[in-house]
């Protein structure tokens, strides 16, 4: 795969709360949303620092409640701003981490890392999130990633955009293009739903994310995407809804307990997490509870909130969203009736009240929810990255015409803002405007370039300034020509010229004062490499400690067995016991200060002891080290998978225990139903469970239809519904085997299916056939590619045909009816008891002769009649139902 994707550019949605990365797969002509190491398509934009290591993403967010002062989030609300900005001054009161003023009034985050105080810029925090997204992409593509398209809110100003580019440079990425988030979402929607749009179609993008809000109006025609207008608020999103809920419950806690928790970061963080969960629940429920144990000073907090109350708390913000929608349409001079599609993007767009208000604004128009709101922006960014990449031929031939979100101009006499390029102007663009001198014999002018919508120039954002000198003596009113030029990357160049002498001066706006210098970026890149080295060092030490603990545990258990200990002489026992004692002391002591070499040396000592004992034939440890090294050598598997009776759960240190067949379960690996032996996490309240095939998955698999060398194991397949299992025909959402020769994707449990299914006496009842064009008895669909993808089970008599997925469903249904016992056959999960097996087979209509069992029919009739009896007893006269039940019992 490395050569196939070498030099590939990715699209990154750098969000306030969550980030996402995607790539265009040329050979498949589609975008792939890349999942992280936890199998999720989005990763929290969160960075944490502890006494031992740096954490990014899921790991950082999971420990935020216990380490709030050193867990940084919302970096997108800091980037490109000044510390004196009123927005920063307001937000810093809500953040648990400390924000202080730095050089040139830049906000800096103060925290502790390994016992030392650190100060980080927002660009550095964002670069760490970008590094995480780059690593996620590299793990999937198996090749270094250097080029990326990064998205920003449409209403980001020039300083914020350039700060985002600096963050990419620190992360080691070449930011090919910065594009607006709603524009990227429009690309995703246009390619997914409007690829054949010939007539002009107006698309309205409503993007309400975790921390920013943008709306854009675009027209799509013949694969030309032209942005007409954009509006938004860089400080409005799901975080603001959470803040209002937190404030509401802080006041409630104060009213009930006479205690104010607003100054306690840990209590606020735990309450915020509970409010965030409640907000999500209220998107599909009308009420939910808020429960936080020992929230403050041992006092438990329990309350409830209704959807109506949530809407009341945030109604002001919801109405502000609608005002922004109206302003965008006004800027585009378009009536809302002319909008063809309203597309929802961003996680907060799922809020029912937001959808209700938006639908009411557009006079009841049905909102488009067909694209994933969390992935749409990264999808569009990946397409743009493919368009900008050299060597990619198989990519949609589209044209993107974006706009400048804010007006650009110069300061004139009286501190007035003279606009040269109005907002919502399509870029690239070049505009020239004539100005005059204000004094007689004026020899030079200072030209100040601003960005913004305020009338007073000083109230806008100063981008840069330069001087035009050498103006010949002349009365006031001498003309000067100033030209603004914006390229496709949004880079602004300003020039001024005096026509009579030809004197000219120009400036490319780089915001050198507010942007990071080359020296600062170089220093931050070196620090990023230092953090990366420290992270690797910590992981190496943690692995050595885990392996050492594993060896000690195995050897201790082995020595307890008499047949093993009796083979060892006293000296050998003494050496082994001494080595175990040293390793145990090392693990039990405060080992944080110990060097990695100490653990690795002890590990090597235990390994050498085991190897000598194996060579002497004293003991057989065939699965301690060999399987660990075998699995860890496979590039696709990121966690060690032990092929014995235990396998590590990714969320807990506890191992997973192999259990014999019981109730049906949903596999956490391949996301399919399971019926046979399974691995369960030994941690209490953990639902992580795996098929035996998923737990024992290796890089080479076998199936009767294919060569065993063609299949490669992927631990986490993409969660999008663009791939399906060629065995059962269901979506691939987890573990999967992929055949590089045929292109088949198979769940591990489908790959391991027996070629035939037999009863207890070995008689074949179902034969596995590939792509049999027959109607399934259960779902009545023909097994062809256009209708139902996958293989079929056909009875030996040829009179019954079942899809593999339908057979699984029938097994599950009959288990619920009690036709299967706890002791089951490993191949199909049917009872080992012959009579019950025949009952189960007949219930699924898989008897070779095609006969139906009266026993099952009787049970079915009884169940139906009992149900009728209960209903009749409640709502009417039960006499007729009782008579029918007695008649059925006598007849059968």
UniProtKB/TrEMBL annotation:
Residues 651-695 form the DC1 domain. Keywords: ATP-binding, Nucleotide-binding, Repeat. GO terms for biological process: protein refolding. It holds the Pfam family HSP70. It comes from the Eukaryota. InterPro entries: ATPase_NBD, C1-like_sf, DC1, Heat_shock_70_CS, HSP70_C_sf, HSP70_peptide-bd_sf, Hsp_70_fam. GO terms for molecular function: ATP binding; ATP hydrolysis activity; ATP-dependent protein folding chaperone; heat shock protein binding; protein folding chaperone. The keyword Nucleotide-binding applies. The keyword Ligase does not apply. PROSITE patterns: HSP70_1 (PS00297), HSP70_2 (PS00329), HSP70_3 (PS01036). GO terms for cellular component: cytoplasm. Signal peptide: none annotated. This is DC1 domain-containing protein. It comes from Glycine max (Soybean).
């Amino acid at each position: 795969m490395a050569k196939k994707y070498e030099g590939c550019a990715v699209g990154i949605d750098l969000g306030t709360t969550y980030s996402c990365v995607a790539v265009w797969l040329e050979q498949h002509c589609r975008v792939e949303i890349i999942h992280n190491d936890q199998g999720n398509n989005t990763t929290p934009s969160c960075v944490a620092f502890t006494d031992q290591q740096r954490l990014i993403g899921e790991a950082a967010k999971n420990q935020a409640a216990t380490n709030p002062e050193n867990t940084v989030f919302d970096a997108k609300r800091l980037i490109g701003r000044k510390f004196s900005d009123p927005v920063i001054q307001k937000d810093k009161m809500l953040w648990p981490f400390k924000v202080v003023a730095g050089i040139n009034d830049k906000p800096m985050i103060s925290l502790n890392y390994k016992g030392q105080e650190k100060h980080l810029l927002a660009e550095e925090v964002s670069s760490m999130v970008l590094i995480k997204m780059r690593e996620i992409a590299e793990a999937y593509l198996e090749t270094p990633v250097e080029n990326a398209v990064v998205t920003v809110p449409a209403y980001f100003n020039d300083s914020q955009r350039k700060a985002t580019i600096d963050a990419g440079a620190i992360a080691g990425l070449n930011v090919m293009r910065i594009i607006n988030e709603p524009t990227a979402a429009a690309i995703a929607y246009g390619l997914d739903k409007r690829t054949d749009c010939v007539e002009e179609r107006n698309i309205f993008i409503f993007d309400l994310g975790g921390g920013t809000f943008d709306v854009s109006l675009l027209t799509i025609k013949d694969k030309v995407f032209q942005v007409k207008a954009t509006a938004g608020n860089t400080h409005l999103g799901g975080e603001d809804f959470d803040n209002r809920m937190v404030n509401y419950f802080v006041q409630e806690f104060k009213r009930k307990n006479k205690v104010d928790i607003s100054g306690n970061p840990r209590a606020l963080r735990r309450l915020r997490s509970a409010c965030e969960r409640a907000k999500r629940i209220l998107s599909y429920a009308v009420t939910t509870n808020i429960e936080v144990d020992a929230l403050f000073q041992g006092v438990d907090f329990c309350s409830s909130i209704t959807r109506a109350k949530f809407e009341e708390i945030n109604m002001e913000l919801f109405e502000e969203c609608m005002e922004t929608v109206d302003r965008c349409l006004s800027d585009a001079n378009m009536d809302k009736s002319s909008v063809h599609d309203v597309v929802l993007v961003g996680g907060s767009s799922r809020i029912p009240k937001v959808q209700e208000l938006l639908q009411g604004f557009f006079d009841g128009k049905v909102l488009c929810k067909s694209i994933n709101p969390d992935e749409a922006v990264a999808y569009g960014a990946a397409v743009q990255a493919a368009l900008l990449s050299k060597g990619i031929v198989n990519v949609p031939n589209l044209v993107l015409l974006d706009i400048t979100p804010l007006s650009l101009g110069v300061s004139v006499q009286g501190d007035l803002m003279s606009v040269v390029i109005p907002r919502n102007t399509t870029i690239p663009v070049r505009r020239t405007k004539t100005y005059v001198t204000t004094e007689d014999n004026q020899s030079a002018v200072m030209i100040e370039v601003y960005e913004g919508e305020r009338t007073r120039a000083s109230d806008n954002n100063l981008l840069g300034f330069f001087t035009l000198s050498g103006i010949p003596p002349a009365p006031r009113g001498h003309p000067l020509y100033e030209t603004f030029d914006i390229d496709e990357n949004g880079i602004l160049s300003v020039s001024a010229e005096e026509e009579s002498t030809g004197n000219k001066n120009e400036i490319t706006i780089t915001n050198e004062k507010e942007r990071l210098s080359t020296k600062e970026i170089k220093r931050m890149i070196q620090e990023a490499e230092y953090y990366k080295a420290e992270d690797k060092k910590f992981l190496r030490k943690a692995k050595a400690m885990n392996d050492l603990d594993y060896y000690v545990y195995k050897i201790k258990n082995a020595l307890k067995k008499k047949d093993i200990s009796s083979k060892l002489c006293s000296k050998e026992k003494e050496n082994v016991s001494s080595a175990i004692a040293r390793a145990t002391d090392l693990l039990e002591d405060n080992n944080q200060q110990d060097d990695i070499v100490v653990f690795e040396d002890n590990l090597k000592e235990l390994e050498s002891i085991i190897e000598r004992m194996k060579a002497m034939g004293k003991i057989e440890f065939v699965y301690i080290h060999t399987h660990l090294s075998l699995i860890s050598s496979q590039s696709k598997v990121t966690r060690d998978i032990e092929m014995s009776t235990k396998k590590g759960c990714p969320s807990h240190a506890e191992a997973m225990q192999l259990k014999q067949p019981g109730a049906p379960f949903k596999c956490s690996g391949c996301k399919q139903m399971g019926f046979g032996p399974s691995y369960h996490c030994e941690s209490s309240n953990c639902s992580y469970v795996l098929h035996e095939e998923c737990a024992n998955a290796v890089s080479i698999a076998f199936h009767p239809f294919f060569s065993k060398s063609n299949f490669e194991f992927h631990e986490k397949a993409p969660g999008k519904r663009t791939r399906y299992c060629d065995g059962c025909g269901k979506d691939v959402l987890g573990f999967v085997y992929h055949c590089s020769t045929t292109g088949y994707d198979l769940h591990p449990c489908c790959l391991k299916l027996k070629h035939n299914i037999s009863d207890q006496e070995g008689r074949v009842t179902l034969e596995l056939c590939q792509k049999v064009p027959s109607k399934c008895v259960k779902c009545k669909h023909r097994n062809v590619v256009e209708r139902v993808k996958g293989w079929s089970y056909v009875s030996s008599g040829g009179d019954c045909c079942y899809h593999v997925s339908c057979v699984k469903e029938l097994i599950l249904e009959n288990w619920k009816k009690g036709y299967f016992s706890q002791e089951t056959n490993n191949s199909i999960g049917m009872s080992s008891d012959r009579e019950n097996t025949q009952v189960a087979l007949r219930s699924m209509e898989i008897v070779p002769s095609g006969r139906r069992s009266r026993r099952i029919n009787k049970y079915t009739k009884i169940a139906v009649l009992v149900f009728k009896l209960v209903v009749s007893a409640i709502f009417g006269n039960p006499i007729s139902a009782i008579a029918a039940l007695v008649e059925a019992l006598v007849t059968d």
